[in-house]
Every structure is written in structure tokens, then in C-alpha cells.
Design brief:
The complex is a heterotetramer. By secondary structure, chain A is mainly alpha-helical. Chain A has helices at residues 2-11, 13-24, 26-43, 45-48, 80-116, 118-133, 136-147, 151-178, 181-189, 193-204, 207-230, 241-249, 257-284. Helix content of chain D is 35%, strand content 23%. Chain D has helices at residues 50-57, 89-98, 116-127, 134-144, 161-173, 191-208, 219-225, 243-248, 253-261, 267-272, 303-307, 326-341; strands at residues 6-19, 22-35, 39-43, 65-70, 73-76, 99-102, 179-183, 211-216, 228-233, 236-242, 313-316, 319-321. Classes of the chains: A mainly alpha, B alpha/beta, C mainly alpha, D alpha/beta.
């Protein structure tokens, strides 16, 4: 019985090495915990906030942080704490949504490009070069300008601007895995192309993508907030960190707390994601393992 | 002549890894006389390279620590020396060439400049003289049209040429000891023959001693005066080259010699296999490290580490088989 | 080297065409009628039809695009602004100097600061100063630049009154915008330089240099930095793009009349020719900077020089 | 197929890779045969094309020119002429089953995410062998290569290099190939582990009646296991002979130099040996000489060698050499011997 247990332990050990490396990195674990808390807050926003995010109370406008309003109220007397918590929803949806879309598209393009090479590769990479030559923030702005500014379009805009990133990383990873002798020997065994791609190449070229995805979420949230700040993203009265700061900007001389809290929320989220990304990268890097 | 150039006493070196402390070198002692070629031979992970790098204190610390022991170079223990004092020794008194000539040269610096740099560290003189000397060194190690080659970058050199350049760099300040860490492992046979020949020729010229680290017993037989066989962080046998190959005493040495087919042997002779693998050095066995794989082991082999006994002709071996024989043989002589 | 430069310049042509196609398509499908945008909602039917024909808006998409391309590349004509009725290129050139000043100074600050901090950090690996720099860099990449801008204005302009809160005039005026714009780049360059340096420290040739008896400082400056910089330089070129993107935010915060601000204002005014022109202009500027960086790269890395010139 | 019959025939195989604008001639006109049941050794230094040759025979690469004929059937031709030779997907798959490869690097030749079981059973699944008995067959294979049954559930990173190479051998043998191509199977291993693998391969070859092609740069190991040896240099064959004959009586100057360069683990022998030191380096296969590929390092080379490539000629039964100046070399050697005896 004990022997079996031991064997099972060994069986998963590659994953276990990864987790052991990851959990040894206290900052990374802290990042993961913060991120989980933020996600939980966004999901259960209804239960942890005392007001409605769009509930106005003009008499109570511009009140400083107090026991009643932890982060104070804005120009319409809306509770900033409530709005910050609800704002997490927009940011997380855009962050994770855009990265999921970009990752899916980028990985498929990168896989095709890296595995087949040749003219297909040359064409796809040229297209990626073109998209990459437009700074991603400007590209997103151009797309939103064309499609109109709302959550969906913002998500599409950011996703499109991120695709080349994922495609390039995936391509490089696939190209290095393709050289591995286990891929050659699978082909020599007579395994067909699709199985080689699905069983040998994809699982082994995915780890750099995971790191990139984490950092990509951070980047997307920042971009989305920046766009909303410019008035090109999510429009008021929907609470969003970027547009909250944008409004608060007008009152910065007299009511600076209005700027502080949404900004701090963005920063905390990005910091958590960056910590997590660093931790994942270190844990996935075989160089640091020995 | 009998004065020792380098004496290593009971050296213990450990490497910290996330799995635990690897005891890479576990009590190694040997000595080298001026002008001698001393070879340390063993398989990967036996601690031979760590020993070599420790002599120059090149290992980054952490993760590598000298736990115990002395390294006495020309009568002075260099273990307690500071980094600044070590710099005086490196390159001038002891220098080193490495296994992979492809990565051991700085890719973005001209080869001549890299040799010149070795000179500049320890000598003062006119820049032009230094450069001329580098070109001269390249010529000495057999690089054709050295003046042109000195202005090229390492990637324009072939593997053999780079190793020649490394040798030129190593010998730039006429050191008393050259440590060659697997200098020919990455090279082809015909190029290996050239490099070994070059090392011999340069040794004749400069009179330096050489520590040759290798896994290839053939290279040892070609080059060495004295040989130490290392296994799992310990030296199990030391003898002069002729003596070791003629009368290998330790079972590991014997089996290692029999495990590799020789070019001058007929093929009917069955290859001896050494079953199993070397032990992990994180928790090394208390007894003889080879006991687990040894075909001649007895009960006590696994219990305690056999002490090193000196037999006739300065032949040292750590094996219980010879413990009793040790005295009788000495009596015989 | 010259042939390679020319080749790279020629390679810019398909990129420029691609960018213009993407942007043109995007704005073509955007809602709103160009004529009404230009002349107001209550333009008469007759004038509307005539203007549409005159502007070529009834032509097929491909023809419209080709005409646009022809104007852009043959006459450097990016069209005319709906709002000001001025040529777009003139508008862009009016705003571009401020943006260029802002981004170039920020790039310089970011490069020098990032590499310096990264080298210091790597050399003192696992020591106090390394941890401090690491934490600062981590905070730096996590700071939303527009928020930082507001906080700095709050502190230095509102509270202390030391620095102006808008514009780019004089060195005092440059401080806040450049700090805000370069912060992210400094932080990410610091991190990259550090990890690149640490990679190089592990290389065999650094061990060789140590075996020669070189001092730690000599090894760092003669062997490590140059090799560590090789991968960094490419990212500096890429960084220019993100700096231009960041400039949009920065110009809005500090009320600077730059190209980013022009673009945002034009979007709000639905002045599409200007938006189109800005994106193409900026993309080309990025490509040129990348090209310049690539050539610089070849000067540093002898291996690449050989490879590229042989191709 | 009876032992000794021709199993594989290589007709004028060329393999060129493009490097920038230049051509790297990895193989340049190789004509060879592999007979059923023999162990054919292929030796040479880096850049000689020995691995490429193995990869062309195992259909990993298509040749740029020439044909691989397997049991009389044209099996590997340049990709664009595949249609002419009517190679069906079924034929290609059948060929995979007959020819298997073991690679040099045991660390990269196993998928890190597959257990040993999955690695070994995969081939049987693809070729539909042993339906329903694959598990038993896998256990049998593990035992055959000297691994415990418990190895089946482990991942590659839990094994040492030697053990991984055993898994690779089990994987290759799982579909019962006729020809096993061993591409430097032991050069990444330590000496004590090398002998384990060498003995295992010899045992398996005898037990299963395999034909083997053993690619290596280690001349002493090749001498130990091979029946016939091919010496290659820069994409061309220099000399082919039975193992005994080649090592006793090397005729090509390159073979002589190569053999004399191998250090022998015996100081007595080493002191007495006459070592031929070749001049210069192995040229890069990108700018290989157009005549005899060895002419840049050969002391006997003249204008003829630089201009014209010597053909592989049969000197004595089974012993083939490609050199223009065999007579001069021999003459010179007898002279030297004469001096030595005087």
C-alpha cells in the first residue's frame, strides 16, 4: 500500500516540482492570493458592498472617506468603495477575455506557422509584423474609433492587438520543440501529423504561453483602464477604474481621494498579476531548477 | 625537483541545490610536482571538474562551498585567500582551459584582444608590444596567418582553432600550472590528436605542469605522468600512468578499463559491464561508494570507507582487498 | 551593411501598405457618413450627393483605397481634416515635434536609467540594493501611468507648487511628463537588463575571463555589459512603440498639443482622416526607429553582422 | 529474407541544405548497400554526413537526389518525384514499421509528458500490433531491455541517461522493425553505461535477428560491434570494408589518420605508436572541395585530386576505397617501413 502511494507521488512529480518551486516563491503566492481575492470580490460584489454602484445621492456628494463611505463619495454622491469593487468586474472581464481570445487565435496561428514553416510561415509572420508595427495602444484606439466604444469592442480591440505577441511566442516555442528528437521519433514510428501536433508539440510548447498570458492580462487591464481614462473605453455611469479616474481628474485639487482609490485598485491588480507571472516563469524555467 | 608545486589536502566541496547539499568532492588529496602531467579521470558527476575549478576558486559561492581542506600552491594555502589575492594567482601562476571552446570565448570580442587582455592583467608594457605578443602566441599554437586571425571574432574560428586560441590565452603569462578541463571532449578525433600534441609541445617549451581532467582513458594513456581515478567525489586510486594501466588495483579502475573496447583488441573479448549507476551525492553512502556496483564486494565494503593505502611505487588505492596485501607487498619490495 | 540597410528600407514598403490597408478598412467600416460628418447633419440632399461623388465615396472599396494610397505615397497627401479643413499632414507636423521631444527624451531617460539600474542590480545579485531595485521595478511596471501622472501633479504642482501641471515648456515642464512616460520603460528595461546580465554571468566566457585574473569590475564592463545589451537593444526599439502609445495618455494628462492628443480629439470629433493619418504616420515612425535600432544592433553583434550581410 | 541478401540499396544519394545563398552538401553521391542481418558501422567526424545518412534511410529527410531502395522497392526519393514512384501512404507507414531509429540524445528523445507505457505502446497502437495484448508486450519489452516493470508508470525525467536509452530501444523494438538505425546511441553516455547499452544491443541483435546500422564517431566501439564499416568524410564515402580488414589494413590515407588519432588506453602502446597528424581543420561542408573532399588535408593531394572526385573502387573483395593515389601511398609506406627496419 505504502509502495503504491510512493509510486503515485513519483508519477506526478513533474507537476509537483513545478508547484514546489512555485510555492517556495512567497511573492508569487502572495500575488496569487491577491488575485483570487480580487476575483472573489468581483464575483460576489453584490454581497460585499453596502450600496448600488449607480445609486446617486446629491446631498452626500464629495464626502471624504468615513465609516459610512469607506472610500468617500464622488460628484453624484455615489459610494466609491462600491464602485471600485464593481469596477473590478469590467477590468477582469476585459483582461481575461481579451487574453483568452488573443491566446486562442495566437496559438493556432503560431502553431501553424511554426510547424509547417515555409511560405505559410513567411506570410503569417509578415502580417504579424505589420500589426506589431502599430503600437498596440494606438491599434486598440483605432479599432475602438471605428467600432464605437463599449465593453465588447474594447475587448476585441485589445485582443486583436495582442494576437501577434502570442503567435510569435508560440511559433518560437513550437519551432524549438519541433527539433526535439521525440518529435522525430514519433514521426519515424509512423504517428500522423495531427497526433504529433496534439500529443507531442502542443503540450510541450505551452509553458511560455502561460507566463505570457498572465502578463497579458495585466497589460490588457492597463490598456483598458487607459482607454477608459481617455474616454474611449467603457462609458460612465458604468463603474470602471479608468473612467472613475478620468472623472476624478477634474476634482483633483479639492478631492484627491477620488483619484487615489481606483488607481490603487488598478495597481494592486497589476502588481498581483506581475508577481504571479514572475513566479510562474521561474517555476517553469528548467534552467533554475538545478 | 621533489618540491611539490601544488598539494591538495583532504578537500571537501559542496554544492547547494534545491534538492539538498550535493557533496561533490569528499576528501580529495593529491600533489603535483613542477612540469608533471597529472590526470584526474572519472565519469560525469564524479567531482573532477569541481575539484579543478576549486583549485582556481572559480566556482561561484554560493552555491559552491569549500567545506574543508587545504590547497597549497608553492607552499601557500590558497583556500583562505581573498578574491583580490586570488586574482594575482589566476592567469599568472595557474591558468585554465575549458571543455567547450565554442562558449568559452567572448563572442563579441576579437580573439587577439582576448589574449592581449590576459597579458595586460599581469604585465605592464606598451600596447603594441602586447598585441604583437598575442599574435606571436597565436603563431606558437599553430594558427596560420596569426596577424589576420587575431583581428577576427571567435565565430570565425573552427572548434579546433578556438581551443588553440584558448591554449594561447592560458599560456600567455607562462603559468606554472595549466588546468585543462576536458580540453578535447568537444573535438573530433583528428583534431583531438592535434590539440594533445600541441599541449605536449607547449609543455616542453614552457615547462608548466598540467592537470588534465578527462573521462577518456585513452587520452590519459597518451598524456599523463600520474593518474588519479575519481568516483563519487573520492579518489579511489592514484598511481603513475604506466603502473596504473599495467596493474590497476581498484575494482572500479579495472572494470572501467575493461568496459571500453580498445582499438588494438580483437573483438572476441567480451565487454565487461558495470551494472547500475553511481550513487547520489546528496546522501552519499558511508561505505565504499563503488560497493553497490562492485562484483568483488564483501560485507564490510558497504559498512565503512576503506582507507587509502600506499603500495610499492607510490601506488595508492582505497579498497579493502589490498589492505592486507599492502603490507605484504611492501615487505616483498 | 549599406545593402542591408537599403534592403530593410525596401521591406518597409509592404509594412506601410499593410498598415494603411488595415487602418483604411477599419475606418471605412466605422459608422457615420463622412459627408455629414464634414458638413453637418442638415446638409441638403443634393449637396450631399454631389459631395459624395466628388469625394469618390461611391467608388468600390478597392478604388477608394488605391486612390488614398496614391495620394499618400505620391503626394504625401493624407487627406483633409473634416474639422479644420486643413491638410492632415500639416496638422500632424504641427503636433509631432512635441510628441517627438517627449518620447525621445523619455526613451533616453528610460534607456540610460533602465540599463544602469539593471546592471547595478545584477552585479549586486541577492544583496540589499538588488532587492530594493527589484521591488521598485516591480512597482514601476504595475503603476498605471495616468494615475502616476495625476499623483505627481497633486504632489508637485498642487501641494508643493514646484512644477507646472501642464505643457512641455522649459526643463521644469519636461520633468513630470517625461517621468510619467518613461517610468514603465525604465522598470521593464531594468528587469530585462538584470535577467540578461544574470544570463551572461553564467556563460563560460565569463568564467574564462575570471580565470585570466580579471577583476570583477573589468569582467562586468569588458565582457558582460556588451553581450548583455545585445538582446536589450531590440527591446528598446520595440519600446519606442509603447512610448508613443503611452504618449497619448501623457499628453492628455499634461495638456500637451501632441500627436496622441490630436488623435484622441479627432476620434471624439469623428474626424477620421486625421485618425487615419496619425496611425499610419506613427506606425512608419516606429518602423524607422526599429530599423535604426536594428542597424545599431549589427554594429554591436559581430556574428549578426556577418550573417545579415551574407544573406 | 535470408541473411546476407541486400536489404537496403542507396543509389547516388545527395542531400543539400541551403544555408543563406550557399548550399551545404551534407551528402554528395553516396552509393551503399546494407545486407540483411549485418551490423554496418558508419564512422566519421563531425560534418561528414553520417547522421544525415541515417535520417535519409529512415525517411526523416527526403534526399535531394537519388533513391533509397528497400527490399527492391523504391522507398525514399526526392519529394517532388514521389508521385512518379507511386509511394502510397500505406507504403510509407509500412516502411516506418520496418525501419526504426535510436537517437543520440536520450534526454530529448522521449516526450517529457509521456509515461514509459505510453511511449512504448504508442507505436503498437499506430500499427495496430498485438491488439489486446499490448500491456503484456510492453512488459516483455521492458524486461528485454533490462528495466523493471515499475518503470512503466514513470516519466522520462525520473530516469538516468542509460535507462532512457533503454526505453528508446524498447520503443523502437516495439513494432518489430527489420532494420534498426542507431544514431550515436552511446556517445552521450558515460563509459560504464556505454558498455551496458553496447552489450544490450548486441544481445538483442542476435536474439531478434536484426539488421543494424550503427552510426558513431567512436572507432573502437564500431570495431567491437560492426561487421562492415563505412568511413565517411564531408558527405562522401572514403572507404568501405569488413571490420577486420579495415582496422588491420586501412588503405585510404584519411582512414589511416583517423585510426592513428584514436588514443589507446595503454601507455605502453601509446609510446610506441606512430601518429599521423593531419594538417588543418575539417572544412565546413558549406565550402567543401569540389574534387576529392579530403584533398585540402591530404599530403598526397595534387591537381587531379582538386579537380576530379575519385570513384569508389573495389580493391579486394568487399574492400572499396575512393582515392587516386593508392599506389603512391603504398609505395611511400613500404619505404618508411624499410627505413624503420634499418
Amino acid at each position: 500500500m505504502q509502495k503504491k502511494k510512493e509510486r503515485e507521488g513519483e508519477k506526478q512529480s513533474q507537476l509537483r516540482i513545478f508547484w514546489r518551486m512555485f510555492f517556495k516563491n512567497k511573492l508569487a503566492v502572495a500575488g496569487l492570493v491577491i488575485l483570487i481575492l480580487i476575483i472573489l470580490a468581483a464575483v460576489f460584489a453584490d454581497f460585499i458592498t453596502p450600496y448600488y454602484p449607480e445609486e446617486q445621492n446629491l446631498q452626500g456628494a464629495f464626502s471624504a472617506p468615513s465609516a459610512e463611505h469607506w472610500f468617500g463619495t464622488d460628484e453624484f454622491g455615489r459610494d466609491i468603495y462600491t464602485r471600485v469593487i464593481y469596477g473590478a468586474r469590467q477590468s477582469l472581464i476585459i483582461g481575461f477575455g481579451a487574453v483568452l481570445v488573443a491566446m486562442a487565435a495566437g496559438c493556432i496561428l503560431g502553431l501553424i506557422s511554426g510547424y509547417y514553416g515555409g511560405a505559410v510561415d513567411a506570410f503569417l509572420m509578415r502580417v504579424m509584423d505589420i500589426v506589431m508595427s502599430i503600437p498596440s495602444m494606438l491599434f486598440a484606439i483605432a479599432i475602438v474609433a471605428a467600432l464605437g466604444s463599449n465593453l465588447r469592442n474594447l475587448l476585441i480591440a485589445i485582443a486583436l492587438s495582442k494576437i501577434p505577441n502570442f503567435a510569435r511566442i508560440m511559433r518560437a516555442s513550437v519551432m524549438s520543440v519541433k527539433q526535439m528528437e521525440y518529435v522525430t521519433s514519433a514521426k519515424v514510428l509512423g504517428v500522423n501529423n495531427i497526433r504529433v501536433i496534439l500529443e507531442d508539440i502542443l503540450p510541450n510548447s505551452f509553458s511560455p504561453i502561460i507566463v505570457q498570458a498572465t502578463l497579458g492580462v495585466a497589460f490588457s487591464i492597463l490598456t483598458a483602464a487607459g482607454m477608459s481614462f481617455l474616454g474611449l473605453g467603457i462609458q460612465p455611469p458604468t463603474p470602471e477604474w479608468g473612467n472613475m479616474i478620468s472623472t476624478a481628474k477634474n476634482y483633483i485639487r479639492d478631492f484627491p481621494y477620488m483619484t487615489i482609490f481606483p488607481g490603487a485598485a488598478i495597481m494592486l491588480t497589476i502588481l498581483a498579476l506581475n508577481l504571479l507571472g514572475d513566479g510562474l516563469r521561474d517555476a517553469l524555467d528548467p534552467k533554475l531548477r538545478y | 625537483m621533489d618540491k611539490e608545486l601544488l598539494k591538495v589536502e583532504d578537500l571537501e566541496v559542496s554544492i547547494q541545490t534545491y534538492r539538498g547539499e550535493v557533496q561533490a568532492v569528499r576528501g580529495v588529496s593529491f600533489s603535483i610536482r613542477p612540469g608533471e602531467v597529472f590526470s584526474i579521470v572519472g565519469e560525469s558527476g564524479c567531482g573532477k571538474s569541481v575539484t579543478a575549478q576549486t583549485i582556481m576558486k572559480l566556482n561561484a559561492s554560493p552555491p559552491v562551498f569549500i567545506r574543508k581542506g587545504k590547497i597549497i600552491f608553492e607552499g601557500r594555502d590558497i583556500v583562505p585567500l581573498s578574491e583580490k589575492e586570488m586574482r594575482q594567482i589566476r592567469g599568472r601562476d595557474i591558468s585554465m582551459i575549458f571543455q567547450d571552446p565554442m562558449t568559452s570565448l567572448n563572442p563579441s570580442k576579437k580573439v587577439g584582444k582576448q589574449i592581449e587582455e590576459a597579458l595586460k592583467v599581469h604585465q605592464h608594457g606598451h600596447r603594441k608590444d602586447m598585441w604583437n605578443r598575442s599574435v606571436e602566441l597565436l603563431r606558437l599554437v599553430g594558427i596560420p596567418s596569426p596577424a589576420v586571425r587575431a583581428r577576427q571574432y571567435p565565430h570565425e574560428f573552427s572548434g579546433g582553432m578556438r581551443q588553440r586560441a584558448m591554449i594561447a590565452m592560458g599560456l600567455a603569462c607562462t603559468p606554472k600550472l595549466l588546468i585543462a578541463d576536458e580540453p578535447t571532449t568537444a573535438l573530433d578525433v583528428t583534431i583531438q590528436a592535434q590539440i594533445l600534441e600541441l599541449m605536449k609541445k607547449m609543455k616542453e617549451r614552457e615547462g608548466n605542469a598540467i592537470i588534465l581532467i578527462t573521462h577518456d582513458l585513452g587520452v590519459v594513456a597518451n598524456m599523463a605522468d600520474k593518474v588519479a581515478v575519481m568516483y563519487a567525489g573520492k579518489i579511489v586510486e592514484t598511481a603513475s600512468c604506466d603502473e596504473l594501466f599495467a596493474h590497476p588495483l581498484h575494482p572500479y579502475t579495472r572494470q572501467l578499463l575493461a568496459a571500453k573496447p580498445k582499438l588494438n583488441q580483437s573483438r572476441d573479448k567480451k565487454l565487461v559491464t558495470i551494472e547500475g549507476m553511481p550513487p547520489s551525492l546528496i546522501n552519499p553512502p558511508t561505505g565504499c561508494p563503488f560497493a553497490e556496483r562492485c562484483k568483488e564486494k564483501t560485507a564490510r565494503c558497504a559498512m565503512a570507507m576503506p582507507p587509502e593505502i600506499t603500495l610499492a611505487g607510490d601506488h595508492k588505492v582505497s579498497c579493502f582487498q589490498h589492505q592486507d596485501a599492502g603490507i605484504s607487498q611492501e615487505v616483498c619490495v | 551593411m549599406l545593402r542591408y540597410s537599403i534592403k530593410r528600407l525596401l521591406q518597409l514598403i509592404p509594412v506601410a501598405l499593410g498598415v494603411s490597408l488595415i487602418v483604411f478598412t477599419l475606418l471605412h467600416i466605422s459608422p457615420g457618413d463622412p459627408v455629414k460628418l464634414m458638413m453637418g447633419e442638415n446638409v441638403s440632399q443634393e449637396v450631399w450627393a454631389r459631395t459624395r461623388e466628388a469625394m469618390g465615396l461611391n467608388d468600390p472599396f478597392a478604388v477608394q483605397y488605391l486612390n488614398y494610397i496614391k495620394d499618400v505615397f505620391l503626394h504625401f497627401d493624407l487627406g483633409e481634416s473634416y474639422a479644420t479643413k486643413q491638410p492632415v499632414l500639416q496638422e500632424i507636423l504641427r503636433c509631432f515635434p512635441s510628441t517627438l521631444k517627449l518620447t525621445l527624451v523619455s526613451m533616453l531617460v528610460a534607456t540610460v536609467g533602465g540599463i544602469l539600474l539593471g546592471v547595478i542590480s545584477a552585479v549586486n545579485q541577492n544583496k540589499g540594493i538588488d532587492s530594493v531595485i527589484n521591488v521598485l521595478a516591480l512597482v514601476g511596471i504595475s503603476f498605471p501611468s495616468f494615475w502616476l501622472g495625476l499623483l505627481l501633479i497633486l504632489l508637485f504642482s498642487v501641494q508643493l507648487g514646484w512644477l507646472p501641471s501642464s505643457g512641455l515648456e522649459g526643463w521644469q515642464g519636461m520633468i513630470l511628463p517625461c517621468t510619467v512616460l518613461s517610468l514603465q520603460s525604465i522598470a521593464s528595461l531594468t528587469r530585462m537588463t538584470r535577467s540578461s546580465m544574470l544570463d551572461v554571468i553564467r556563460q563560460d566566457y565569463v568564467r574564462t575571463a575570471k580565470a585570466k585574473g580579471l577583476s570583477a569590475a573589468a569582467i562586468i564592463f569588458f565582457h558582460e555589459v556588451k553581450n548583455a545589451l545585445i538582446p536589450i537593444i531590440t527591446t528598446i526599439g520595440m519600446d519606442f512603440g509603447s512610448l508613443l502609445g503611452g504618449a497619448v495618455l501623457c499628453e492628455t494628462i499634461f495638456s500637451i498639443q501632441g500627436i496622441g492628443r490630436l488623435m484622441v480629439d479627432s476620434i471624439k470629433r469623428r474626424d477620421y482622416p486625421v485618425v487615419q493619418g496619425c496611425v499610419i504616420f506613427i506606425a512608419l515612425a516606429c518602423c524607422l526607429v526599429n530599423l535604426a535600432v536594428d542597424l545599431l544592433y549589427m554594429v554591436i553583434d559581430p556574428k549578426l553582422k556577418k550573417k545579415k550581410t551574407e544573406e | 529474407m535470408k541473411t546476407g541478401e541486400i536489404l537496403v540499396e542507396l543509389n547516388d544519394i545527395c542531400e543539400y541544405f541551403s544555408v543563406g545563398k550557399k548550399k551545404l552538401k551534407a551528402l554528395d553521391g553516396i552509393n551503399l548497400t546494407i545486407r540483411s542481418g549485418e551490423v554496418l558501422g558508419v564512422v566519421g567526424e563531425s560534418g561528414c554526413g553520417k547522421s544525415t545518412l541515417g535520417r535519409v534511410i529512415s525517411r526523416i529527410y527526403h534526399p535531394t537526389k537519388g533513391q533509397v531502395i528497400y527490399k527492391g522497392v523504391v522507398s525514399n526519393v526526392p519529394r517532388r518525384t514521389e508521385k512518379e514512384h507511386r509511394l502510397t501512404p500505406k507504403q510509407k507507414k509500412e516502411y516506418c514499421k520496418n525501419v526504426q531509429v535510436i537517437f543520440q540524445d536520450p534526454y530529448s528523445s522521449l516526450n517529457p509528458r509521456h509515461t514509459t507505457r505510453k511511449s512504448i505502446i504508442r507505436g503498437m497502437e499506430v500499427h495496430n500490433l498485438y491488439p489486446g495484448h499490448q500491456e503484456e508486450r510492453m512488459k516483455e519489452l521492458l524486461q528485454m531491455v533490462g528495466l523493471p516493470e515499475s518503470a512503466a508508470d514513470r516519466y522520462p525525467h525520473e530516469f538516468s541517461g542509460g535507462q532512457r536509452q533503454r526505453i528508446c530501444i524498447a520503443r523502437a523494438l516495439s513494432i518489430e522493425p527489420e532494420l534498426l538505425i542507431c544514431d550515436e546511441p552511446i556517445s552521450a553516455l558515460d563509459v560504464s553505461i556505454q558498455s551496458q547499452i553496447v552489450n544490450l544491443l548486441i544481445g538483442l541483435k542476435e536474439k531478434l535477428g536484426l539488421t543494424m546500422m550503427f552510426i558513431s564517431h567512436d572507432l573502437s566501439v564500431v570495431k567491437y560491434i560492426c561487421d562492415r564499416v563505412v568511413v565517411m568524410y564531408l558527405g562522401t564515402v572514403m572507404e568501405v570494408a569488413d571490420s577486420q580488414e579495415l582496422y588491420r589494413n586501412p588503405l585510404h590515407y584519411y582512414t589511416k589518420a583517423l585510426l592513428s588519432a584514436v588514443p589507446i588506453a595503454d601507455p605502453e602502446v601509446e609510446k610506441k605508436r606512430h601518429r599521423i597528424l593531419l594538417n588543418g581543420d575539417i572544412p565546413s561542408p558549406v565550402d567543401a572541395p569540389s574534387g576529392c573532399t579530403f584533398c585540402s588535408r591530404c599530403p598526397y593531394a595534387d591537381e587531379l585530386c582538386a579537380k576530379e572526385r575519385p570513384q569508389l573502387k573495389e580493391i579486394s573483395p568487399g574492400h572499396m576505397v575512393s582515392c587516386h593515389h593508392l599506389d603512391r601511398i603504398k609505395e611511400n609506406e613500404t619505404k618508411e617501413e624499410a627505413y624503420a627496419t634499418v
